[in-house]
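Anyone able to model this chain together with manganese (II) ion?
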Amino acid sequence: MAMRTHEEIAAAALDQLAIELPSWGFANTGTRFGKFLQAAAATTLEEKFADAAQVHRLTGACPTLAFHVLWDLPGGVQDVSRVKALEGTHGVRAGSINPNLFQDQRYKHGSVGNPDPAVRAEALAHLRESVDVARQLGSRDISLWFADGSNYPGTQHIRQRKHWFAEALGMVHERLAPGQRMLVEYKPFEPAFYHTDIADWGMALLLSREAGPQAHVLVDTGHHYQSQNIEQIVAWLLDEQRLGGFHFNDRRYADDDLTLGSIDPYQVFRIFHEIQQFAWERGAAPDLAYMVDQSHNLKGKIEAMIQTVRTAQELWVKAALVDREALAGHQAACRLVEAERCLTDAFATDSRPLVTAWATARGLPADPFVAFRESGYLETITRERGDRNLASVTSYA
Ligand code: RM4
Ligand code: MN
Ligand code: MN
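re: yes, here you go
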């Protein structure tokens, strides 16, 4: 087979990478201590669609938008027609549907893990309605994150809650239509600081297996303890055929929700490498949902989103440049330095011109960040939304 050029490798890799944007990443969010409001932040669903459409227009990589039911479709299935109309107007489709089981007062001691059967039933009803919302929107994935846990030793029955979780997830799975998937996200701590019901990938995997074949694990890159080997988790989940997708963000300490690759780009590269290695060996890319889950309090929301998408593209291309044939040979012969250099050489390659070439060949701006700055969109929305934004704040967990 003829050697492919870097340009060809990059183009083939980028054509495969679609990244879903989170509606909540365009809204005003904050820290536990306060919110610094941005005049240009999106408040309405229409504004979130409009902002996501900008990112898609400039990067060519973001055809779908994820929703949090409570924040975006508070009327549940009643709001589906409104979303469909906006899809048509903005050329962005509905992506994953995120039930919200952490904000209501009744969830103080948990949702499907709550000792009160009435609260568990309400949580289950919301989960089922979220599946219906997804089905009516033609969304494949229901993305589940539970804040459930406890703050002090002895205050909750850990195994009992595990059983309640297994029961609820099984019932959600029953509601799925063929082709739909439920993604189970894990997180070690926050808001619960003693135990979290789905704290790590092993718990998420066990619950997914028990729920059924359409349940998969969602890896949020910010939901691990320090120095945990995330790419190994990814490799194992791929091998188990249970990796559903990602929430992209970066972190230095905990669930910091910083822009992707801002702290540790090599970590993201290593994850991408494992995925592409798997695809190379199988001759087909795994069916994964690549989603952004970030919260930008200080960076401009649309700019931060463009930054993350472009960083993902650059790191995805670097991973595609790993010489897999050579690497396989070095691994088999335990040529350690040569094997490692397959990764470091690819990582050190400047992939920015390759991404730029791909973009311009597809009629996209060479630099989406500069194009955004020049478009005047930010000035327009700042003018239009400024006054209202100072008065109303979108809530955030
Ligand atoms: C959580 C988790 C969820 C996200 C919420 C807002 O930490 O990452 O995916 O939907 O935050
Ligand atoms: Mn997440
Ligand atoms: Mn998170």
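The pocket of manganese (II) ion (ligand 2) is lined by residues 145, 185, 220, 247, 293 (CB under 6 Å).
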